Amino acid sequence: MENLEAELKRLIIDIFELENITPVDIASETPLFGAGLGLDSIDALELGVALKKKYNIHIDTHASGLAEHFASVKNLAGFVVSQQENKSI
């Protein structure tokens, strides 16, 4: 899971062009939105598209709990793993 979290941190840094930030600077529990990394709803859409492309997962935008899945890198990693597991069943 740590490798996936590091990969997600790198993805976030790359797609949002976060200058002077490395994956080490982002704690896995840091909120991605608001006071954390400061991402907004448009960023959430962009992040969702990037996750779909990179991990070939389905994201149901109407699913309950979606905001919680996108709350932190740790939560995102758990979400990606669960979506990949659901595909293999």
Automatic annotation (TrEMBL):
Transmembrane segments: none annotated. Residues 2-84 form the Carrier domain. SUPFAM superfamilies: ACP-like. The keyword rRNA-binding does not apply. Gene3D superfamilies: ACP-like. It holds the Pfam family PP-binding. InterPro entries: ACP-like_sf (IPR036736), PP-bd_ACP (IPR009081), Ppantetheine_attach_site (IPR006162). Keywords: Phosphopantetheine, Phosphoprotein. It comes from the Bacteria. NCBIfam families: PRK09184.1. This is Acyl carrier protein. It comes from Methylomonas methanica (strain DSM 25384 / MC09).
